[in-house]
Design brief:
The protein is α/β, with parallel strands linked by helices. It is built from 18 helices and 19 strands. 56% of the residues are buried.
Length: 525
């Protein structure tokens, strides 16, 4: 599992070494790792000798890391330039850079555009203006320089620790920000690099060990991300004597006469994700379409029969189908059964949800949900608010509803009511297509139905993630998000990276699950 930490947690881990007089050692390790990362990137594009590198250096340790790294690169034969954004740059780092024959330029009022053109004409730009301790964004000439560079798009941008203007804790972005191709971060991943919009500005993230990693193991991560090994280890896996009921039965109230496709996609996705049986409750005309796609499913005009989990709300419209969803939600609450609550069913929540109710809104739906809650406050929450601060609002929704909340997006966040948050980002932008969320609902519903009986087992697979029982439901949702994202990427890869439909995502789900099982050396049934 990948753990991400706040800037304060990183600084707390560094403090014992700083108190012991090891600050210079930390900086040298960071600079060496940054320089090595630049070398690796350049080697994939061209020869090192003669490569031009410009470091944008601010005051403080971030600028010092960048200057020391540029000095090392100069000794590797690269042509290095430092653009100093402050008169208070790290003195020892500046001296090392000058000793390596680096060229120094000064950012002043009125010359930002000229310097931006010069920087963009080179091969590499290292952004070392602001570090994890910065509050707010760039100002004055530094902001003007970065805004110009963002328009000019240099060949390769490497961020030192994190892109300047990105909040290390929340992922909030204070524009302008120079979007990086690679972010070289030190000691541990910062939480802001694993949640949008920050993750979208960070590019690929490379972690450099600087000697504080052991201290971070005692810290509770701000964010967690499941790896392929984690996902494969906890995916349900039928035993030799499994049968359709032990494999998990999912009840589905989705779709409507107006939106029948939501039911067709959700039911079929659940079947492909391993549910032993899927019971569909809905209008006959929709039921016929569901059975045409998934003849293995059962159609029942009204919710009946025992289930291990419910999927409610995708494409639900009209009073008749809404009433079915309301009845199923009441039955699930009475029987203490897990529920996936999507779209049209988000308005049917009880006053307090259990953590095994998993809400799956997109940003607009989350804003509407938060505005409907009594303790949100007088200021309305908008979709733009949620997209600007998704980590804050997904946590707020989980805390106020009592449910686990999965916020769909380029980076999907899953928050437990306790504050534990997972971040998954395996998908492709082509997944922004109609019906993609319906497929996710089916995958998640199937996983809940298969896991519901064992999630509380202290010897079970999810217990191996080191989570309390109440937080394991968030892990199930994160697994579903990961499988869904990987399926979308796999489907697009089959088309040479081209556009895909929700049906293509759905078709790729069984292969993804099989590959994840194989990666964990789990035998196929």
């Amino acid at each position: 599992m990948i753990s991400a930490f706040t800037g304060q947690q990183i600084r707390d881990a560094e403090q014992p070494l700083l108190d012991a007089g090891e600050g210079a050692v930390l900086m040298q390790r960071a600079a060496f790792g940054l320089a090595q990362a630049v070398v690796r990137e350049v080697k994939t594009r061209r020869r090192l000798a003669g490569t031009s590198v410009t470091v944008l250096a601010g005051k403080g340790n971030n600028g010092g890391d960048g200057l020391f790294a540029a000095a090392l690169l100069a000794r590797r034969g690269m042509r290095t330039t430092a653009v100093l954004a402050s008169a208070e740059v790290h003195p020892e780092a500046l001296a090392a850079f000058a000793a390596a024959n680096g060229r120094t330029l000064y950012l002043e009022p009125g010359n930002a555009e000229e310097l931006a053109v010069l920087c963009a004409a080179g091969d590499v730009v290292i952004d070392a203006l602001l570090g994890t301790g910065a509050r707010g964004g760039l100002r004055g000439p530094s902001a003007e320089l970065v805004a110009c560079l963002q328009e000019l798009r240099p060949r390769l941008v490497v961020a030192c620790d994190l892109p300047s203007g990105l909040d290390a804790n929340s992922g909030e972005v204070h524009w302008p920000v120079l979007e990086a191709d690679v972010t070289v971060t030190f000691g541990g991943v910062k939480a802001g690099l694993m949640t949008d919009p920050g993750e979208g500005s960070a590019g690929r993230v490379h972690v450099v060990e600087i000697g504080i990693e052991g201290s971070l193991t005692s810290q509770q991560p701000e964010l967690r991300r499941l790896t392929s090994q984690d996902v494969g280890a906890v995916l349900p896996h039928p035993g030799r004597r499994a049968h359709k009921y032990s494999r998990g039965v999912l009840g589905v109230v989705a779709g409507s006469v107006r939106f029948p496709g939501a039911a067709v996609l959700g039911v079929h996705a659940a079947a492909l994700a391993g549910a032993g049986m899927v019971r569909y409750a809905g209008p006959q005309t929709v039921g016929q379409l569901v059975l045409a796609q998934t003849p293995e499913a059962l159609w029942e005009p009204d919710e009946s029969g025992r289930v291990q989990a419910w999927l409610l709300g995708s494409g639900v419209a009209g009073e008749e189908q809404l009433e079915r969803a309301r009845d199923a939600a009441a039955a699930a609450l009475a029987a203490d059964v897990p529920v996936v609550v999507d779209a049209g069913a988000l308005s049917l929540l009880p006053e307090r949800c259990p953590p095994h109710w998993i809400l799956t809104p997109h940003a607009g739906e989350l804003a509407t949900l938060l505005d409907s809650l009594p303790s949100t406050g007088e200021v309305a929450v908008t979709r733009d608010d949620v997209e600007s601060r998704p980590l804050h609002f997904v946590r707020q929704a989980a805390e106020q509803t009592g449910a686990t909340v999965l916020l769909k997006g380029a980076t999907t966040l899953v928050a437990s009511p306790s504050g534990v948050v997972f971040s998954q980002s395996e998908g492709t932008a082509w997944m922004a297509t109609a019906g993609s969320g319906d497929v996710l609902g089916g995958v998640l519903g199937a996983l809940l139905a298969q896991s519901a009986e064992t999630i509380k087992d202290d010897d079970g697979a999810y217990a191996g993630l080191g989570l309390d029982v109440a937080d394991r439901w968030a892990a199930v949702a994160a697994v579903a998000a990961s499988v869904h994202g990987r399926a979308g990427t796999a489907a697009s890869a089959e088309l040479a990276g081209g556009p895909i439909t929700a049906s293509a995502i759905m078709a790729a789900v069984p292969g993804v699950i099989g590959s994840l099982n194989a990666e964990c050396d789990r035998p196929r049934p």
